[in-house]
Amino acid sequence: MAAGCFTLLLLTRRFEPHKSCAVQAKQKREALFPLELATKALSVKLQAAEASVDADRVHILNAIVGAEPDAEPPAEHDQYARMNAMLAGRFAAGMLRVVVARGKPLDPFLAAIKASRATSLVLDLSKMIKFTGPQLKLLTAALPVEVEELDLQLAGSKAASEDALITELVKRMVGFPNLRWFDFDCFTPKHAPLLMKVKQLELIPAAVWPSGKARLAALAGRTGLKRIDLSGMSADQASLAAEALEASSASLTELIVINSPGCMKAIGEAAMTALSRGSLSNLVALKCDDFVISKETTSLDWSGSKNQSGGLATAQLLACAVKRHTSLTSLTYAAAPRKRSLNPDFGTRCGCFLTVDLD
What we know:
With 359 residues, the chain is an alpha/beta fold. The protein folds into three domains: 174 residues, no CATH class; 86 residues, no CATH class; 82 residues, no CATH class. Helices cover 39% and strands 13% of the residues. It has 13 helices and eleven strands. A four-stranded mixed beta sheet has the order 9-10-1-11. A four-stranded mixed beta sheet has the order 5-6-7-8, covered by helices on one side. Strands 2-3-4 form a three-stranded parallel beta sheet. The protein starts with a strand and ends with a strand. The N terminus and C terminus are likely disordered.
């Protein structure tokens, strides 16, 4: 191995492809789906469905209503209605982009979404020029009040320029009693007072609090966050950034640290402290200046990086990120000559085999 580099080898499990790849593949499949069938699917009833083996139909229906497997399923049941509404809502949400693209009426699909009582919704209408302000108003009214997690992408659509309607949507969402996750690509700083009302929110969007100082103030006292963005932090904010990481280390799934060279050491040390306590076990994604690690990442060569301002502290972050949940099996990192080695128990803490070769 070349001098000045170390290689990190980890024992990891493999996971499904990254979300963005899966979403793109899903959209391609749905784009070809016949709209006539899509509309009919909104009124499909599970209790009227057939199966190649009738015993399977009986078992499925009884599982839905909570009856014995071989009992005669009831003709109608509240659980049938609930399941039918849920399935129709999911189907409608998945087809909404296609319906907009083809210029068809949204009414039956939005009605299905509202009736679904869904607790989780993913709606990607980004780059859809045909999605307009009036349609956004209808969508806002159709969002189920039971929603706990909403991932809504509108950037590039005509509706994204409708500031007043965007604010009305945010107002409606923050009024939902169980909202925990609101990932929205049209947030602006003026939405900060609204989002601060949601005490159980699991992310603090950087678009709402663009400055490091403002974001740290929003992070202060918050626990249970799943995504933390510590980008743009100055050296004098290092201790507060580390505190924010430590406070949510048990729940954190994604960490973003971009353009924060003065904070990397403190953040790295906080990550290692959390790891030694058994925290950071849910961390699956890390975004830094020169790299992104997510579930499907298999290898990373950082030796040619132009910006290694974080030094070995960044390597500590990497080890935390890949500890359990990613597919990363190798990491090459260029260390500065005559740099001290990592903490002696670094390899033990990270569950990895570590070889260091320094000048």
